[in-house]
């Protein structure tokens, strides 16, 4: 495996995240370890690199039940060079999976938007898998506020 | 109340144009994580778990959906139009129900 | 000073940064509301006798992502219920074999001013009627159908569909009819009456402290021109009487029944406080 600064950084993040799991005794939420496992299965052994995919989400969600998220992957989306799928994972939800989007050259571009649930303040990760097997990632920390009025 | 999809697809597009498609369907998206307030029992999961879009029989876009997608699932994506034809949209419910809808697009 | 300190504490508790010496202000956002390109009146001069100078739609107090959902009728999830309401409008129910459309035909014409002018005086009942009560009267007297129970059956979608026909029209209640003035007065009394263990009145939050934060919520003026409104929290339409009951519950008081004289008086008075604002049904709130 080729090690560059980005994969190193990525692995360092993984270690830090996995390290933090030991301290997290809450059973109600998925652990970052579960999330990493899911990402690993999706990536099929490839190390995710930062770049090419950009994930957009509000910094502070007004309500965790409906949080708009969108992403875009830089790709020509031709029959020879396209994004196969993009997976969204939430590290702090009861289950880490959010959705997996599948694209084709007929998609024209690789972008999509949806609305998701966030059980608490957490990190949301997007991973894009290209048709050549390379994998790219981006992540956002989203704060979930607790309303005043039965919120 | 049966799920009833809403779709926003342009009526026409130029050959080679990339269009944006928006879809919204009425569904509670019961996550399987909530407890019944009276009995304390877990309310069984019932969500739309799969969405797909085909154009003239060829796959354009699809999505495997987990319970973390909000009630009344909204999906926005794109499609490149090379010919006139028909989009077919499919939503699959956990209970096996399949909801289908179609939209035509012409070349301008 | 005490109040400022409290607000600051609330802000910090919400995870937002605020300097202890800073007065935390959270003004409603200065942006024009257009729905599908149609301009809405979302801020306007208050009517005579109103305690505030300007009435402001709750839309201005929300964050960009919530505001954006209301600006586009496709993206607004409340429109799913409006479409469901349209189906109900055209569906025959009851022993008389009628639908709403049998008598009222095209809702876009017959209902165009309903959403902006209700509650209206109902002489036979001796009380103001909101759209929900009017629907139930139609169902029992003209359709031979069962009245809807509160928030059940087609009540919320049909109410939303009817009110949506007034989208953009300014709210204007006629206080000159029947005993409307008297009901307005009792609504006003309730608005200023402190209740519950927390000893709060409607005015405590929505008149004296609108624009400030209560924990992470940005307090609005509590106008109801967007009801039934889609709340992101519940992921469904919320009726105005449900919202009233929620507010009263949060003061830790016993809440009156939906459509009771108390809540009808309150609905009339609170609707009047939003005089001049466009009907936004279905609004989108957090």
Give an overview in words.
- The complex is a heterotrimer of chains A (151), B (108) and C (286).
- With 151 residues, chain A is of the alpha+beta class.
- Chain A has helices at 5-21, 32-43, and strands at 49-50, 53-56, 60-61, 67-73, 83-90, 97-103, 110-116, 122-130, 135-144.
- Chain A has a single domain (29-144), classed as Immunoglobulin-like (Sandwich), CATH 2.60.40.2470.
- Chain A is built from two helices and nine strands, in the order H-H-E-E-E-E-E-E-E-E-E.
- Chain B has one domain: Immunoglobulins (Immunoglobulin-like).
- In chain B, the strands form two sheets. Chain B has a five-stranded mixed beta sheet, with no helix packed on it. A three-stranded antiparallel beta sheet of chain B has the order 1-3-6, with no helix packed on it.
- Chain C has 286 residues and is an alpha+beta fold.
- Chain C folds into two domains: 15-75 and 169-285, Cytochrome Bc1 Complex, Chain D, domain 2 (Orthogonal Bundle), CATH 1.10.760.10; 79-164, Orthogonal Bundle (Cytochrome Bc1 Complex, Chain D, domain 2).
- Chain C is built from twelve helices and eleven strands.
- Chain C has a three-stranded mixed beta sheet with strand order 10-9-11. Chain C has a two-stranded antiparallel sheet with strand order 1-2. Chain C has a two-stranded antiparallel sheet with strand order 3-4.
- In chain C, helix 3 (78-89) packs across helix 8 and helix 9 (180-192) packs across helix 12 (261-273).
- Chains in contact: A-B, A-C, B-C.
- The B-C interface holds B 1, 4, 6, 8, 22, 24-26, 28-29, 70-72, 74 and C 74-75, 77, 79-81, 83-84, 232, 235-236.
């Amino acid at each position: 495996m080729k090690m560059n600064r980005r994969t190193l950084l990525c692995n360092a993040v993984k270690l830090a995240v996995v390290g933090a799991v030991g301290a997290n005794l809450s059973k109600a939420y998925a652990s970052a370890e579960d999330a990493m496992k899911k990402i690993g299965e999706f990536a099929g052994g490839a190390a995710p690199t930062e770049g090419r995919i950009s994930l957009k989400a509000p910094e502070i969600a007004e309500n965790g039940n409906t949080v708009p998220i969108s992403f875009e992957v830089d790709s020509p989306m031709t029959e020879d060079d396209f994004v196969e799928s993009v997976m969204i994972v939430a590290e702090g939800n009861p289950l880490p999976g959010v959705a997996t989007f599948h694209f084709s050259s007929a998609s024209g571009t690789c972008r999509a938007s949806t609305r998701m649930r966030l059980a608490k303040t957490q990190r949301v990760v997007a991973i894009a898998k290209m048709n050549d097997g390379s994998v790219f990632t981006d992540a956002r920390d989203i704060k979930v506020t607790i309303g005043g009025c039965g919120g | 109340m049966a799920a009833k999809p809403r779709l926003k697809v342009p009526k026409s597009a130029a050959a080679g144009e990339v269009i944006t498609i928006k879809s919204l369907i009425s569904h509670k998206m019961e996550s399987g994580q909530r407890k019944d307030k009276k009995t304390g029992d877990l309310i069984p999961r019932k969500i739309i778990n799969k969405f797909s879009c085909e154009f003239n029989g060829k796959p354009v876009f699809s999505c495997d959906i987990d319970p973390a997608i909000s009630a009344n699932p909204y999906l926005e994506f794109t499609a490149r139009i090379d010919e006139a034809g028909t989009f077919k949209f499919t939503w699959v419910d956990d209970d096996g129900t399949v909801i289908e809808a179609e939209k035509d697009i012409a070349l301008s | 000073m005490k109040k400022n300190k409290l607000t600051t504490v609330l802000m910090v508790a919400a995870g937002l940064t605020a300097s202890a010496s800073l007065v935390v202000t959270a003004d409603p956002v200065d942006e024009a509301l257009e729905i599908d390109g149609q301009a809405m009146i979302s801020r306007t001069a208050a009517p005579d006798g109103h305690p505030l100078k300007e009435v402001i739609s709750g839309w201005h107090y929300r964050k960009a992502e919530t505001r954006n959902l209301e600006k586009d009728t496709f993206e607004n999830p409340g429109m799913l219920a409006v479409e469901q309401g349209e189906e109900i409008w055209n569906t025959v129910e009851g022993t008389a074999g009628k639908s709403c459309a049998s008598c009222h035909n095209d809702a876009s014409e017959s209902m165009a001013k309903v959403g902006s002018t209700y509650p209206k005086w109902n002489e036979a009942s001796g009380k103001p009627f909101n759209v929900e009560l009017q629907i139930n009267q139609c169902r029992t007297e003209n359709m031979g159908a069962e009245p809807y129970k509160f928030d059940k059956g087609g009540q919320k979608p049909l109410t939303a569909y009817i009110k949506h026909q007034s989208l953009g029209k300014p709210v204007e209640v006629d206080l000159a009819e029947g005993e409307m003035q008297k009901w307005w007065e009792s609504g006003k009394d309730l608005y200023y009456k402190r209740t519950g263990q927390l000893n709060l009145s409607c005015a405590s939050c929505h008149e004296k402290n609108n624009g400030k934060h209560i924990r992470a919520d940005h307090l609005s003026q509590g106008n109801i021109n967007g009801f039934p409104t889609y709340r992101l929290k519940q992921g469904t339409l919320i009726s105005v009487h449900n919202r009233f009951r929620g507010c009263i519950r949060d003061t830790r008081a016993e809440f009156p029944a939906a459509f009771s004289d108390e809540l009808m008086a309150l609905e009339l008075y609170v609707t009047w406080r939003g005089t001049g604002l466009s009907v936004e049904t279905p609004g989108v709130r957090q």
